[in-house]
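Data card: per-record layout.
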Amino acid sequence: MIPADVPIALLGDAHLRADDPEVEAFVAFLDDLPRDIGVLAILGDLFSTWIGRPELAHPHHTRVVDALRRLRARGCRLLYVEGNHDFFLRGLVAGDPFDALTETTLDLAAGGRRLHLAHGDLVNRHDRQYRAWRAVSKNRLFFAAFNMLPRRRRQRLVDDLEHGMARTNMAFRGGFPVAESLLYARRRIALGSEVLVFGHFHEERRIEVGEAGRTGTLFVLPAWRMGHRYLRIDPGAPPAFVSA
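The structure for this 244-residue chain is written out next.
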């Protein structure tokens, strides 16, 4: 349970990678996060690729996770919604450093509002190519077979995956799927959500949505690495995008 008077910060899509100056910028952001923020929710794709196996961790993973642990140690609760660059993280980081981790969506009351958090990769129902890839890559039998390979072979596959994901399926990356996002939002608002937050699309947006006599707001997070911006929700005040 999150107290209703606790401010919450939400960000997504840092896509941090090895030898990336954004790693130190993100660590500094975590260390300097305003002390009144009691919850930080990361809506996926913290790293360019993150596999839930400790032997596949790189120094930049460890650097950021250690900073998250410091933030949690000072009393800030940490939430994570897996993105399309995240695979089977529960056994690696659920409980430490993240208080809650979900592979799909997260509904919670925070900042005095009912929130629905999603990475956003499943919003567009017409992206069949990605949905097929996701069904395979997020399959636990597939992951079990992957883990039977030698570590070096697995690391090469992860490196190939990281490079390949940046180049494939460009047809569905050319714009924000407005109609599909509104349909998704209306369904959630009808169920009682007041604020919906997506990552994934890398476009900062705020859209007011009405459905069945209810109103809500859909926020789309910008890619953190592109401007160090995040969404802040304070009780009694409109949610607002702010710069770190």
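Known properties of this structure: Helices lie at 21-31, 59-73, 90-93, 128-137, 140-147, 151-165, 178-190. The mean pLDDT is 92.

See the next section for split statistics.
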